[in-house]
Amino acid sequence: MNLHDYLYYIILPILALSVVLVFVRFLKGPTLSDRVVALDLLITIGIGIIAVYSIISNQPTFLDIAMILALIAFLGTVAFSYYLEKREQND
């Protein structure tokens, strides 16, 4: 079993299953915080899928896209935590 078979038959199905499970948590999340954490995890899993695709297709430029997506996800999480802090101070 070489690297491409391992990526196709083990890693990608695990990532696909994790996307489904996290999306269910995103829909069912009882609080806003649960939904934001699930959305952040969905973006992180998407970054993993982009990285695997970059390895399979031998296109390292996709890793740049994954890095930009990671930075955007980080900024979104920081903005949400700032929003929650301000909301708690107002209540």
Can you walk me through this structure?
This protein is mainly α and 91 residues long. The protein has one domain (3-90). The chain contains three helices and no strands. It has helices spanning 3-28, 32-57, 61-90. The longest helix has 30 residues, at 61-90. The model has no long low-confidence stretch (mean pLDDT 93).
Key words describing this protein structure:
91 residues, mainly alpha, 3 helices, elongated, transport, ion transport, antiport
The amount of helix comes to over 70%
The largest pleated sheet is described as:
none
Low-confidence stretches: none
Number of helices: 3
Write the element-wise H/E pattern from the N-terminal end onward. HHH
Distance between the termini: 58 Å
**Whole-number tally of structural domains:** 1
Write the SSE topology.
Blueprint: H1 3-28, H2 32-57, H3 61-90
Helix pairs in contact: 1-2, 2-3
Write a short abstract of this structure.
This protein has helices at 3-28, 32-57, 61-90. By secondary structure, the protein is mostly helical.
